[in-house]
Amino acid sequence: MSSLEQRLSRIEEKLKQENKEARKRIDLSIDMSPQRSRPRPTLQLPLANDGGSRSSSSESSPQHPSYPSRPRQMLTLPTPPYSLPKSLENAEIDQKLQEIMKQTGYLKIDGQRYPAEVTDLISEGEIGSGTCGQVFKVRFKKTCHVIAVKQMRRTGNKDENKRILMDLDVVLKSHDCPYIIQCYGAIVTNTDVFIAMELMGTCAEKLKKRIQGPIPEAILGKMTVALNLTDLFLSCSSSFQKHGVIHRDVKPSNILLDAKGQIKLCDFGISGRLVDSKAKTRSAGCAAYMAPERIDPPDPSKPDYDIRADVWSLGISLVELATGQFPYKNCKTDFEVLTKVLQEDPPVLPLSMGFSPDFQSFVKDCLTKDHRKRPKYHKLLEHNFIRRYEVSEVDVAGWFQTVMERTESPRSSQCFSHHQLHSLFSR
């Protein structure tokens, strides 16, 4: 076996191990889902003895809102008094979690601060789960706000705890970015961390599955503008002091939309610090969206990639959402995907689907195989595709609501054709 094959096998094994650990955490985590015999029970969560509160983070169904829609106003949460050094030992991680606990016991929603206890939170069901934990739809009894709660189990694993800290660090410092999921507060117990966040409608991956076809170019144009501005914020914002942040897990399941037409990025558990604009650590992420330079770096012992790795992930995501099919869908293993990424030409948008030249050019730029020639986000903002959709009026909210209405009924299980989907968005 060649050295490249050995590296690919190691990456595949790491991904399998992460999935195995995620399933184990889910099996160990507390059951927050509603009991079938009694709908919407009060959550039963073990909190620390200081009687803290609760938190949330995720996406959910936009049906039957329990409170009036609020304006797109950024929360004014205080910047946490902690930062993440390059290396954290278990004792240091535990100490920083203790610091976070001092900020818990309340939720700050729409600029108002509310004392919160676990009995104030009513579960309305699990929304989803991933490598970083489970997400639940929750109703806050004191205000009837419906929010989302991400539950991440604390373990003795240093890498897992670093994920928790990284996710918290990014969302708490990003309250002034309209394209990052908004955080209402965090609860840390002896066994779990709960992050309270705004509830979105659904993710792009689930939207694609609902409509069983491609997402219109105009919607993807607005989505691309949002993601570019998000990653530019993460890599350049003064909120992150000397070092920017690289997401490292840009993919359709981490792109959220809602009935208000908002588009936001979530899940920063494996994001990393940029030192001199470079990422110096490896984190597996999702093989399907991983850039070539992350799969096969010149020196595997010293990873040295930058924000352009996220640009590649954006390109793969756009091809998937624009065509309705994952570009490596015929691969049966992560090893096959990684091999194709390295050995084959990058995916392109099919000419037969009628995409605009600007969109085709933008995706081609994102999927430039040589990362040294691939543009960074600030350069992509000059692309005609971005400039067009920065100023274009696109009814994302209307399209989203139409799709959700037409696909929520079991009788609407038939696939939409490419023409039908675009006719839903012809204005």
CATH H-tier superfamily of the largest domain: Transferase(Phosphotransferase) domain 1
**Strands across the major sheet, in which order?**
4-5-6-8-7
Q: Roughly how much helix do the residues carry, as a percent range?
A: 25-40%
Per DSSP E runs of 2 or more residues, the count of β-strands stands at 15
Main β sheet profile = 5 strands, antiparallel
How large, in whole angstroms, is the Cα Rg? 21 Å
Mean pLDDT: 73
- Categorize the overall geometry: globular
Terminal-residue CA separation: 55 Å
- Percent of residues in beta strands: 15-25%
Give the C-level CATH assignment of the largest domain: Mainly Alpha
- What structural category characterises the helix and strand content? alpha+beta
**Oligomeric status:** single chain
The unreliable regions are 25-88, 237-243, 270-283, 409-427
Helical run tally: 13
**Any idea of the CATH topology of the largest domain?**
Transferase(Phosphotransferase), domain 1
Kindly give the count of domains: 2
SSE sequence, one letter per element: HEHEEEEEHEEEEHHEEEEEHHHHHHHH
CATH architecture of the largest domain: Orthogonal Bundle
